[in-house]
Amino acid sequence: MLRSLPKRLAFTPKPFRAEATTQRRSFNATTIRFSGTVPPITPIEKLILEHSFNHLILSELRGSKQAVGPMSYATYMQFCLSHPTEGYYMKSLNKIFGAQGDFITSPDISQIFGEMIAIWLLSQWESAGCPSRLRLVELGPGRGTLITDVLRVTITKKSSQSVTIQVDLVETSLSLREIQRERLSGVPASIHWYDSIDHITPSNGSFTMLVAHEFFDALPIHVFRKTDEGWKEVMVSSRVTELDESNPEQYPRLQHVLSPEKTAISTIFGNSSSRFQSLPVGSDLEVSPTSFRLARKVGEVLAKNTQTGSSLGGCGLIIDYGRDHAFGHSRRGFKNHQIMDIFHRPGECDLTANVDFAYLKESMQDLVPVYGPITQKLFLTQMGLMVRLERLLQSHQGDQTTSDRIREGARRLINPQMGEEYSVMGISTTGGPVHPFHLLSDASK
Ligand code: SAH
């Protein structure tokens, strides 16, 4: 018999609060209960359990009572989302986006979303003096709806000027790349795909316009708890000692455990912002070092090189659910438009966490001017959402069904849920004040 995990590793995550919602992944969930039949093990789950079991067996053989082998939540998240063959975003079998999929995002709710983003990006390009070479970069384009809308506006607005457009897409999923390729076929721009923003160079002779929508929430987070001894890491471990796929008592099969010791990772990243250092003992903290690194890279890509003059600089928008502060309990799963437990069907559910915009800002503000975040509602309304809505409705006069759909989509983008829970952060090397970020920032709460 294998021994269960020692008591001191036990850690119970706080339950989710408030209402479960449909059709969006922003945070407001009820406690997820498991009932009915126990689902079979997923390939990712098997991998993790085998890893834990192997370590348990090894420690048994050595006569040690302590289980080793829990993995960080960041590794767990990375595995579940980006495992090369079994990861959630990597499998073409997973129906991710849209009404028939697991979640629907703003670009697919209304074309006005992408149009307002395009208008903001182009306003910055104009402030930079309309350079004749434009580079559009998107991180995590999903189905390619946003980039298609941004490109349509860009091409329409610039048809009178000779502007060369290059599109660089950062996408790890081969199956999503295929969808993006189809979506963009025939577009008059040269399009390139990259595995990582690391392969994108600072703009060379072109003005860069970058967008990242619901990208940073998908990046791995570490979870730490502040103890009297300092930050310790909340890990993921097996909660079963023997696999019994039909036993509801053994589901979910994974659990959180608190690392008995401080580690280099928990100490370095738990103290990686002065905001974290001042948190009281007992606090839980979700930190994404990957987000910090990639956001810094965004700053490098957009920064003006004043010494050589080779880089014209650029602008960018980062849009996601989150606020200008850190979170402790925002991690959640998502499936079929429902918020799920993070240990439910690993690899078959989306995993996500709120974005700490202040951390993104801290990563790049010595490189580029950063604005906001402000709420999505403030951003979209100030960029002219209502005016655009009226024009669209006029062009569909007489078609009640389409008009209703357009009106409903636009309203959803700014309703108290999506409009308030999503935040927008701007980056621009063109010099302020930058509309609409100069208005009162109301996403810092
Ligand atoms: N922006 C889209 C899709 C959001 S889902 C929309 O709003 O609809 C997250 C996207 O990021 C997916 O395309 C996913 O494959 C991609 N992604 C996730 N992690 C990534 C990483 N580390 N590098 C590049 N792309 C990633």
Automatic annotation (TrEMBL):
Belongs to the NDUFAF7 family. One of its GO terms (cellular component) is mitochondrion. GO terms for molecular function: protein-arginine omega-N symmetric methyltransferase activity. It catalyses: L-arginyl-[protein] + 2 S-adenosyl-L-methionine = N(omega),N(omega)'-dimethyl-L-arginyl-[protein] + 2 S-adenosyl-L-homocysteine + 2 H(+). SUPFAM superfamilies: S-adenosyl-L-methionine-dependent methyltransferases. One of its GO terms (biological process) is mitochondrial respiratory chain complex I assembly. This is Protein arginine methyltransferase NDUFAF7. Its main location: mitochondrion. It comes from the Eukaryota. It is an enzyme of class 2 (transferase). InterPro entries: NDUFAF7, NDUFAF7_sf, SAM-dependent_MTases_sf. It is found in: Mitochondrion. It comes from Lentinula detonsa. Arginine methyltransferase involved in the assembly or stability of mitochondrial NADH:ubiquinone oxidoreductase complex (complex I). Its EC number is 2.1.1.320. Keywords: Methyltransferase, Mitochondrion, Transferase.
